[in-house]
Design brief:
Layout lengths: L4 E7 L5 H14 L6 E7 L4 E5 L2 E5 H4 L5 H12 L20
Parallel strand pairs: 1-2
Antiparallel strand pairs: 1-3, 3-4
Amino acid sequence: MDKPRISITYCTQCNWLLRSGWMAQELLHTFSDDLGEVALIPATGGIFEIRLNDELIWERKRDGGFPGPKELKQKVRDAIDPERDLGHVDRANRNEGLDS
């Protein structure tokens, strides 16, 4: 069975490459053995979309901004392995905003 593919389409005019790369790094670190690919796709026009295979799981305009790493990891986990425990990411929000 093929492993899931994540694509992050980001606006080059808005300088969102570093944000996109950081999110890709977070996903690859957490799901290193579960993902087949994380692709960064440059675009223009204020776009920021994250797709799991062909399903849109985050869209900046629709979802009100950018996802945090906790939120993004939970969305990916829920789609590819709902029983997986993400450790501190799934714990109480007492450290919200810190290294998620």
